[in-house]
Amino acid sequence: MKVLMLPLLITFFHSPVCLSVTVSSSKPNVEVHEHTDAVLACEFRTEKDPNPRIEWKKKGKGVTFVYFNNKFTGSYAGRAKMEGATLTIHSVTQKDSGEYRCEVTASEDHVNLGEATVTLNVLVPPHVPSCEVPSSVFVGLGLELLCKDKLSVPPATYRWYKDNKALTATGDTPYSIDTNKGTLKFKSVSKTDAGMYRCESSNSVGAPKSCVAQQLKVVDYPLNMTILIAGASGFVALLLFCCICVCVCRHRGCCKKSKKTKSAKSYNPPPPPPPPPTRNFRHYKPTQSFMI
Predict the structure, then answer these.
(1) pLDDT per residue over 143-192, tens digit each?
(2) Which of 123, 152, 187 is where one domain is finished?
(3) Residue 208 half-sphere exposure toward CB, CA atoms < 13 A
(4) What total number of domains does the chain contain?
(5) Is 40:121 a contact under the CB 8 Å cutoff?
(6) Half-sphere exposure of 118 (CA within 13 A, CB side)
(7) How confident is the model over 39-55, as a mean pLDDT?
(8) Alpha carbons 80 and 68: distance in angstroms, whole number
(9) Which distant-in-sequence residues (6+ apart) come within 8 Å of 108 by Cβ?
(10) For a designed S-S bond to 213, which of 68, 89, 141, 198 qualifies (C-beta 3.0 to 4.6 A apart)?
(11) Same domain, yes or no, for 178 and 211?
């Protein structure tokens, strides 16, 4: 038995091991700031093929080529380079964020295709937010101020200022603040809420940015407006009262009518007797015979 096993072991160790192309990435997740360089690492090893074909693709709504047939395509031409299979993109923007795939094709290998995926996330510092502050509002009305920065990555958080003092919502304040949505809400505006308002957006990438402060005035209703509102309220109340009176009158009238109808329906007079049958008689004159 030992004599038979020895040649088999020698043959196994001296036979070439069948390998296929292997592709990997030492850094599958890459985060860089906007307008800097992004290095998407891709390493490969082949069995036999010394010059495999290398391609880079980007996944999105579809699949687009980045590097194909030994050259860059589309917007990557002139701002990217290849070192081995590693891709470097210069001055990246938010549009470059996404999932990239490195594909290596070795036609002489047993398994001739290998691939690795790298995810690129381009970080964007805060931009000047858009702020919506009305110029004036009437006393007692509700109010919502809006602030939005759509460009920052990761998404910005917001802070509101009145007369250059940061606002903090508590249980005693007449307003509420949503730091993620950028809203400042008042249930009922008073004269003390007038002032200069501005909003500030911030994230972990760069310095905060603020919009220009805008003046909010809180004014009383004008006299003619007050009279108009009071008159309209009185008219509505009078109209409602009239409608109620009409409904009550109709309801009582309907009740009386229904009672009369019921009493009329309860008395059913007997039908008149049928007329006696009539017979048709003809006037008959008997004939007389005379004897001579």
Answers:
(1) 999 999 999 999 999 999 999 999 999 888 999 999 999 999 999 999 99
(2) 123
(3) 11
(4) 2
(5) no
(6) 26
(7) 92
(8) 13
(9) 46, 47, 48, 49
(10) 198
(11) yes
Q: Are residues 104 and 135 in the same domain?
A: no
Higher pLDDT, 227 or 244: 244
Residues spanned by the domain of 33: 20-123
Query: Is residue 104 predicted with pLDDT exceeding 90?
Result: yes
**Band of the pLDDT at 221, cuts 50, 70, 90?**
confident
Q: What's the full length of the chain, in residues? A: 292
Beta-bridge partners for 183:
146, 178
Last residue of a domain, one of 123, 140, 161: 123
Instruction: Read off the pTM.
Output: 0.65
CA dihedral 65, 70, 75, 81 (to 10 degrees): 120
Q: Has residue 268 been placed in a domain? A: no
Backbone angles phi, psi at 105, to 5 degrees: -115, 115
Residue 58 covered by a domain: yes
Asked whether residue 275 is assigned to any structural domain, the reply reads no
CATH number for the domain spanning 71: value is 2.60.40.10
Distance of CA 105 to the CA centre of its chain: 42
End-to-end CA distance of the chain: 175
